[in-house]
Write a structure and sequence with these properties.
Protein name: GDT1 family protein
Subcellular location: Membrane
Number of strands: 0
Strand content: under 5%
Keywords: Membrane, Transmembrane, Transmembrane helix
Shape: globular
InterPro entries: GDT1-like
Helix content: over 70%
Membrane topology: Multi-pass membrane protein
Order of helices and strands: HHHHHHHH
Distance between the termini: 21 Å
């Protein structure tokens, strides 16, 4: 249960203010009547991307000495926390995939947007930490992605006008640094 909850919380926090939330807003603006397809596309893209990431994290955990993993995880959480403070830029890879509809566009764009993103890195880190519970990690990171993006798909415009993004980034940074420090104190 710890792997699932940690994964859900970590990705939900990391996703706040991320480029995929901007991508969700863009997709809803483009495919306003197909929010369900957008949400399903987010689910599919995240399952595939984070499944591969979790497998990679489990594989790396087998290569790295066990006493190093706690330090790597702790320092990585702190690094991701600091990374959250850096605003994302919108990528301009949308144009070609939009002609295939909301579901296909969302799957392709979300998968691409997640490559090398902080939530993908967090998934690799979590999988290395909980290598015996990869399914719980993938399920948790996917739920975290949905928790952060589904409200944006349905209420994004209103939410973005009311909550200051800088405050959200600083809070997310603080939570990641706290998770990193807690991991380091377990070492």
């Amino acid at each position: 249960m710890d792997a699932f909850l940690s994964s859900t919380l970590a990705v939900a926090i990391a996703e706040i203010g991320d480029k995929t939330q901007l991508l969700t807003l863009f997709l809803v603006a483009r495919f306003a009547q197909q929010r369900g397809a957008i949400v399903f596309g987010i689910l599919l893209a995240t399952l595939v991307n984070h499944g591969v990431s979790a497998w990679l994290g489990g594989w790396l955990a087998d290569l790295i000495p066990e006493n190093w993993i706690v330090w790597i995880v702790g320092l990585s959480f702190i690094a991701v926390g600091l990374w959250v403070l850096i605003p994302d830029k919108e990528d301009d890879e949308e144009s070609e995939s939009l002609k295939y509809g909301a579901l296909a566009a969302t799957c392709v764009l979300f998968f691409i947007a997640e490559i090398g993103d902080k939530t993908q890195i967090a998934t690799v880190i979590l999988a290395a930490r909980y290598e015996e519970m990869l399914l719980a990690v993938v399920t948790g990171t996917t739920l975290g992605m949905l928790l952060a993006n589904v409200p944006v798909a349905y209420f994004g415009g209103a939410l973005m006008r009311k909550v200051p993004l800088d405050w959200i980034r600083r809070t997310a940074c603080g939570l990641f640094v706290l998770l990193g420090l807690l991991s380091l104190f377990q070492a």
